[in-house]
Specification:
Blueprint (H helix, E strand, L loop, with lengths): L5 E6 L5 H10 L4 E7 L3 H11 L2 E2 L2 H6 L5 E4 L3 H13 L3 E4 L7 H13 L4 E3 L7 H11 L6 E9 L2 H7 L10 H4 L1 H12 L2 E9 L4 E3 L11 E3 L5 E8 L4 E7 L9 E6 L2 E4 L10 E4 L6 E3 L12 H12 L7 H20 L3 E2 L24 H5 L2
Parallel strand pairs: 1-2, 1-4, 2-3, 4-5, 5-6, 7-12
Antiparallel strand pairs: 7-13, 8-11, 8-17, 9-10, 11-12, 13-14, 14-15, 15-16
Helix pairs in contact: 4-5, 5-11, 9-11
The structure holds nicotinamide-adenine-dinucleotide.
Nicotinamide-adenine-dinucleotide binds next to helix 4.
Amino acid sequence: MEINALNAAIIGCGVISDIYIQSLQEKFKIIEPVACYDRDEARMNTQAEKYGLKPMSYEAILDDPSIDMIINLTNPAAHYEVTKQALLHDKHVFSEKMIAVDLKQGQELCDLAEAHHVRLGVAPDTFLGAGIQTARYIVDKGLIGTPLSAVVSLNRDFDVYADIFPHMNQAGGSLPFDTGCYYMTALANILGPAKRVTSFGRKYQPDRVGKRVDKPWFGEKSTVAADNILTAVVEYANGTLATVHFNSENILTEVPQLDIYGSDGTLNMGDPNNFDSQNYLQKPQNERTAFPFTHGYRENSRGLGAAEMAWAIRQDRPHRASMTMAYHVFELIHGMYISATTGQIYELQSTFDRPEALLTGYVDRGFWGPTQESALAF
Ligand SMILES: NC(=O)c1ccc[n+]([C@@H]2O[C@H](COP(=O)([O-])OP(=O)(O)OC[C@H]3O[C@@H](n4cnc5c(N)ncnc54)[C@H](O)[C@@H]3O)[C@@H](O)[C@H]2O)c1
């Protein structure tokens, strides 16, 4: 029996849609992209023609019973409404990060998915890639002993980035949400839920002007919505203490840092925004060693989280890029901003079950093999 794929519609035909559609068409056969919609008609038609999809209005997609799943690749400000409409129409949804902009909206979407008995999965899905799954293998196997503390540092230059993607200086798009979520999701996958967080923030030069002559917002004035420098301390439920540093007003060259210090070793993880981040393990009285990858998906495999969710639907088991983990990370980053504003420690309200680690090794042609039988054999 061949794979019984889920039919999906792609909503939002921008930059990231190419790699999603290519991954789903060429690698993850469990999802068949059949239709697309973008409020920008030209973009919708370009992607429809390029990938053989049917351009449709969102209303028509929602009313089409043959479409099982919505893949929400719109900008963060549109995530809530697009996802909400899909859930109300009993469609499964996989959404790009983050789940929404407001905490309340995020919770409402989780409640809606449950009430409508459909799945909601949320990126980032790089935590399913070779780099972070290998990091989890190292920690789960006890190779650093008991995790005690962690360090996160992420720097970028939003004078450049946000002039290309203006949502990065708008609510819900700031560095901790846009890119910090990769770091905090990687730690969530390895360490589990956080308990509380305390934070300081700073808003540096909030008044901006569009500088790129190739963009329609050239010369337009805007104001940075949230603190663009944020430092935090997170206490995880397992006792690990993490120091977090986000700075979007530095220089373009990133120096990503994501380290876990354990009772018997140190793990340097590399950039969690990539699928192939190399892990380095330092054991007592030993050389620091590049740890071999234990897992597949080193190449850019965006769409992996959606594909894994589709298999989970077919196999009637929990999916890994879960709404509960996504909401928890979302609440944690909101908690940083809340703490920075109030001067109080923020206690996390949500929790989640750590997703199962992926299977080790590389399985070609799809997630767990090319057919449903081979998938079920694992
Ligand atoms: N660009 C990247 O490298 C990257 C990487 C990972 C994740 N992401 C995430 O993917 C999502 C999309 O990012 P992008 O870079 O493709 O942005 P983009 O601006 O290139 O594309 C977004 C598209 O969504 C469309 N859109 C917005 N609101 C809509 C609505 N209500 N209905 C229909 N279409 C709507 C826009 O017209 C646009 O074509 C974001 O959540 C982003 O954080 C982007």
